[in-house]
Amino acid sequence: MSIIDMTIKETIDLLRRRETSSRELTELALERIRQENSRINAFITVCADVALSQAEAADKRLGTEDRISPLCGIPMGIKDNLCTRGVRTTCASKMLEQFIPPYDATAVERLLSSGSVLLGKLNMDEFGMGSSSENSIFGSVRNPWDTERVAGGSSGGSAAAVASGLCSFALGSDTGGSIRQPASFCGVVGLKPTYGLVSRYGMAAFASSMDQIGPITRDVTDCALVLNGIAGHDPRDSTTVRGIGEDYSHGLEQDELQIRVGLPKEYFGSGLDEDVKNAVYKAVSMLEEAGAVLGESSLPTTDYAVEAHFIISSSEASSNLARYDGIRYGYQNANAKNLEELYRLSRGDGFGSGVKRRILLGTHILSAGYRDQLYIKALRARKMITDDFMKNFESFDLIATPVYPETAFRLGEKSGNPLEMYLGDIYTVGANLAGLPALVVPCGLDRKGLPIGIQLVGKPFSEKLLLRAGYAIEQRVGRLKPKTKCQG
Amino acid sequence: MEYEIVIGLEIHAELKTRTKMFCNCRNEFGAKPNTLVCPVCLAMPGALPAMNRTAVEYAIRAGLAMNCSISSFTKMDRKNYFYPDLPRAYQISQYDRPLCYDGYVDIDVNGQYKRIGIERIHLEEDAGKLIHDACVTGSLVDYNRCGVPLIEIVSRPDISSPEEARIFLETIKTILEYVEVSDCKMQEGSLRADVNLSVRKPGDLLGTRTEMKNINSLHAVQRAAQAEADRQAAIISDGGSIIQETRRWDDSRGESYSMRNKEEALDYRFFPEPDLVPVVIEKERIEEIRKDLPELPTSRKDRYINDFGIPWYDAQLITQSRPLADMFETAVGVCGNPKLVSNWIMTDIMRRINEDKDFLSVSSLDGKKLGRVLDLLHKGDITPNSAKEILDILALEGGDPDAIIEKRGLKVQRDESLIAKAVGEVLDQNPQAVADYRSGKEKAFGFLMGRTMAALKGRADPAQVREMLIHHLNKQ
Fold first, then answer.
1. Of B288, B315, B349, which residue constitutes the final position of a domain?
2. Chain A, chain B: beta-carbon pairs less than 8 Å apart
3. Is A109 within 8 Å of chain B by CB?
């Protein structure tokens, strides 16, 4: 195994003992990207020069500073909807194909100041809208476990890059499952933090009230380390909370889990693939082994979740994406003869069809005469769904569910049917609507040899507990590896 | 046919916070285009607004000064529309939970108070400015003003004449200046008004209203309202009906033209701004702000009229400007003679302000110095001419009134022997006039008086000189 396939935790020891250097790790990662990216298509932009100079700076710090972040010198990839100063940030859209931000997203800035090395920017569904990473002007991301299959989305590039060793860890963003579903499809760990734990500053917004940035990593311990690096109040994002200063990596290995775990019956009904169901049940029994008490729970409003999520996210998106007007930055159609044409042609050409569908529907939903019937009603449903979750947490410390009704589907299999694609988000959108933390941990393979993840959802700011439970499952499952790499 | 006019005003005032409403860019007028901008106010991807608390507090100050209730919980909303001067393509504003509501102000219509209701005051951000330059094809945009905090003050339709509309705007402007939340420089656009107006026959229901935008002077408000009332009355008199529409007032041409009608009205698709958490304002804080408010112009004016006996017109004019009213009160405090101070402010000081509108802020002549000069004048230690001379020096060069008097020898001469000497000399040099006086020609006395005052360089108490002159004339 190459050192760049190691976890952050394993790499830290080598770096501290000076048995490897950040420069060596970075060169290995860049070499792996050169070899593999044409197959996986995870990276949109690779910034080798930036990475190498950051690696050298990290090596200096590793040699001189005593108190140093565990993330110092570790090569990372960043989803391409998170702004990186001086490095092109496209959102996988023609609209921002040439956009170079003059600032870093807060989460990126924190990682860079910890000494992490930016390898480049990761492919995704355009503006985060999609569940397959096929809606990108840079082409589809391919699943490292089977390149005929999707990596999931919208953070497909982040999950695929971590799974195939193109970087040690990645940041993704999650508005309706965009970290968790690709993590599940690619057999890696993904966390959508509690709304307000990680600053959204510098993330090109999809749906502001639900967007969260989170880590995608090889294991649970790494997830905790990266979360340590990005969490915390940011004066530039007033929705971030104060006073949550935890070391998420501390005490993960305490195996005694004196917790109650709920299994919402609505999440295990028809439409759920048998292999997925069995793998999730098996993982839950591992929690039981570790001391947890299991029980059936209920989230009766589950049926409304996808619709409510769709209505709210589309409404916010229609407003959030209005700033891309071709005037100050981004794509501008040169043939426009007047202002109206400038808007129409620039936005008509600059956005892909999935994004335009969202904008049109969101605009319609907020229009006079429909707003009350659709938007206001969806807000009420959101409140009911949130109340449902909170009621569950009176009896349970966390709830365990599948992530997606099936494992990674084939490229192109669903791209003609957006409705089916939205419905697949049924198990993940609840955490976004209710602002809850949700962790995905690999828990097995289906009969095709594709990875399956389990989702653990907890109370607001219960990340630590989720990570401990995830760790207990991970210890019992062992690490899953893509077939392709075994073959290679 | 006489028509009743019904007017409501929407007034936009920029708040003079140090920084913009949602970012740390400086809030300043007149900088080079696009130098006061950042990713937040340019709406670059992922840049988020963060609320400037001072803007909230300024809006509360304005609300309290206009007798509004203050919401203890308020939120921002997005008002969505496309325009090149609006980078996010939505304005962060307030829709259904304005910060201040249900207030009023009393306007003084020629000595009679009339109460005008304030429906709401809400917070929002300003947009940038389009610049049309002959040197380039198309338009340019200056984003410096983007994100400057504004309050929008919405009156109830209680205003019933174009003159009242002007007085109302003037009253609002004065209040905002008193509580020091806005510069209210209409020529720089930091105070702007929209006029909503309809006409009706007495006793009828409200007529269809139009909204006129882009009005940026006190007189333009009156002119625009009058023109619109006349236009509507003419249409109705001809049997026509008013179309609900938005019109743009062109002050140079003295007429308005239609911008868009009801069918073309924009649907702003308001929804709560998810990037900002709701603002919770503690009751104690509201009370602190209330306690901190200065005495407002109406109350001051009433006090000047009732306690000081100042004429209405003078009190009205003096209280129109807080610096002027402050100068008045300080000067009264020093010299104890309100009428004297008010007379001098209405003449001498107003002349200086008319010559330079920034006189009070740039000159070192303040209320204390004015009070001292008028105190000396009142006691007869200096003459009115000397007082003018001293005020000129104080206005131009600064300094201390007593030192100037000392240095220039402006103090009134009271030494009886010196005055007697001057009188004696004048009588000796003008025997003809003395003879005339004694033969009953009263005019000769004025001549001798003038000569004596001139000999004393005007720096003597005329009463004392007169007494001495009569004494000497009668003695011989």
1. B288
2. 100
3. no
